[in-house]
Here is the input.
Amino acid sequence: MSKRRHEDADGSPYTPHSPAETAAMLDEVGVESEEELFDVPPEVRFEGDLGIDPRSERELRAELSATLAKNDDLTEFLGRDHHTHYVPSVVDELSERAEFLTSYTQYQPEITQGFLQALFEYQSMIVELTGLPVANCSMYDAATALGEAARLSDRVRRVSGTEVLVPELLHENKRAVLDNYVDGTDLSVATYPMDDGNVDVEALADLAGEGTAMIYAENPTVRGTIEERLSAVGEVADDAGALFCLGTDVVALGLLEPPASVGADVVVGEADALGLPTAYGMGLGLFATREDFLRQVPGRLVGAGEDESGRRAYTLTLQTREQHIRKERATSNICTNQAWVALRTAMHLALLGADGLVDLASECVREAESLAERLGDLKGIKAPVHDRHHFREFLVRTDQPAPAIASDLEAEGFAVHVVGDHRLQVCVTEVNAGRADDLVEAFAEAV
Amino acid sequence: MNHDQARYGDDDRYEPLLSEKDDTSVDVGEAGSPLPDDLTRDDLSLPSLAEPEVARHYTRLSQMNWSVESGPYPLGSCTMKYNPSFAEDVAADPNGAVHPDRSAESLQGTLEVLYGLQDYLARIGGMDAVTLQPPAGAAGEFTGILVAKAYHEANGHDRSEVIVPSSAHGTNFASAAMAGYDVVELPSGDDGRVDLEALEAAVSDDTAALMLTNPNTVGLFERDIADIADIVHDAGGLLYYDGANLNALLGRARPGDMGFDVMHYNVHKTFATPHGGGGPGAGPVGVTEELAPFLPSPRVREDDGHYELFEPAETVGKVHGYQGNWLVLLKAYAYIARLGDEGLEDASAKAVLNANYLAEQIDCEIPYGPFHHEFAATAGDRDAADVAKAMLDHGVHPPTTKWPEFVPEAMLTEPTEAESLDSLEDLAAAFNAAFDADAAELESAPSKTTARRIDQADAARNPRLSWRSIDAEE
Here is the structure.
């Protein structure tokens, strides 16, 4: 009997059994029907209908395409931890090869060398960019990576400190996730002040002390400003015996000071800026740290070794840190991670190369400074608000209420962040720079 | 797939690293940095390859990688089923590529899909409310436990312990500990199920929750689930459902009906969205009405055809910077809608039939039954890891080995519904040949794979975690 199923056949289209095969298998197992195989007592059996109508592939593609088309077609000048860069077509082509896409965690390294090597190369590129010798092969996103960093500080700290100091200008979502990640520990979170968008180093030094477990700073900051005194922040952390955790992103690392050179003990942030198009907040958490903390690192690590033939081969390593071995004593509960996103980021980095990444990062500075200056020339607007260098993003102060301006801009086809009653935030990259003139014009009309 | 196809010359490596193909260093100042020197790095070293070289490198790497589309992938508790391609096309829709800070008003399409998925999952799980925010199953566990904790705190309950059966996934222990709970390990009964007396002894005024998967990790349905629920609830605890094995029950039993108060769904397992080499996944959490006010923020609600975001009244806050893994959620929606009631029921039926059929065909002992979608065979006096390596030479992926721990030399096998009768015969043949192999054969396996047996102990003793550390050594 044919195994081919018509689109409208009953049952799952992805079960390859012909009726005759099903009958033969039931016979072999020794039951009359599939139902007999379900060892579910009557009192908890579900006898109702779920009420989910099946659709054909053709119908669903049309339906979902129509549903998603209800999203307004806006040009996004949005950033704040989720940045859009152009992803070369070949990244889609290569990463969507089924051998990558439909594979699993590499528990049998002899037949998963391909993904292991790709993850090893991802780790290697993060090591080059951060200057720190150990990078894991992904956290969920920047916020969860920060949470894991705080928990790391709790495990490795040399002093009795329990306070995690974070900038008062911190993405509110990041703060909310951090609060949950430290909820089950003795750690607490407190803020230190900022000075014109950057760390107020003197104020931070006054706050830091024996009670400090970790100091977190960002470069670029959530406002897009570039920090100028990170080494001093590193020294404050050192003096307090606290860890210095630096938040950043994979593109910024192409240009800005390498975190290791300013004394960072841990680097977290987003790596999804390369490889992943805007995906409603899907991320790729960066995590790199010093050699001393190797055995306390959360998440998976790929190591190089040798196989029996003496050739170099790769394998998941130091798994005694992980939950499937250490259970409640594991360094983290992370199991499923963002491996495929890391693969895409590695591919994008490989395509850019060193010169391409430096060029892209430089463009992020130039475009932001140029757009800020043009908006700043408009009446009723101050931009950039902070007298700093900027990376991709900057703050705009408006005389008119900011929500009303954002709403007017949206009506003209542009999305920007509202971050206060009279403050907007604008993010520009090579993807939307071509619409910068139109944005300036829309701003001019809105204010 | 022929494992040899990707072999690369007679070199001392199977494929050179990107860094071995090129190592370009760029002087950042000379490259025209727009920033003052003291704010930038001096130089940057990364491979700089032409696109054809990059394409060849990753194509070759893909050829050195096993996947569901390469052949059987029966890893127990991982549910490696076929992933329909059309869902990838749906996920690639440019209208779905949106920034998470867009206004709800401008994202009615995205919110409609999210709302629809919340609704589907609530129906499938028998739950009242669902959050889609957790980006993986373990993140869902952590979220569920945070919600349970918030519920207890709001009701003035002072509870410090979470009970987890010894057979549970390691993530259960880790997630409960991460939320600050002491973990009480519950030994399995002689029949591989929860021992009610042991449970009675374990629960107390300190019990915040019992975390349970059903069917459990050897595929056994916890037939006493109604009594288990009573014992936990009478002690004032909550019942948590680990959704890892939900693929065995679709349309036949629902965690909500069994008395579970909170659960997570591994949509990347049950609803066939690709695991992508270890992720991304998504771990939505469903709860009963009592727990709904504590779910993470924001959730999606509908009002007269209009979708909006809202903050649950006593929300635990956030467990992800934004809204979790949207592309995975979108694919899960597409998969569920493709199958509908009958398709989901059929998927479970065939998953269970396949596991039972395969078990009939293999020569090794299976200590516990009757099982649903997966079974724990034992390799007996053989080392399960060795048997797994021997199976690789027969062109299949082996089962999960040495877990759960209460089955000696366990080979936890889950063929899923996607395997055909022919493919199950291949799997059984590989199983039996590997079990029958003599010591010398086991020791030399695998011999037909890309790489030979890898010395994992050495890799852990001398960690080389980047190409920089390889260079330093050479």
Observations:
- The first strand of chain A starts at residue 75 and ends at 76.
- Residues 75-83+352-446 of chain A form a domain with the Aspartate Aminotransferase, domain 1 fold (CATH 3.90.1150.10).
- The CA atoms of residues 213 and 242 of chain A lie 5 Å apart.
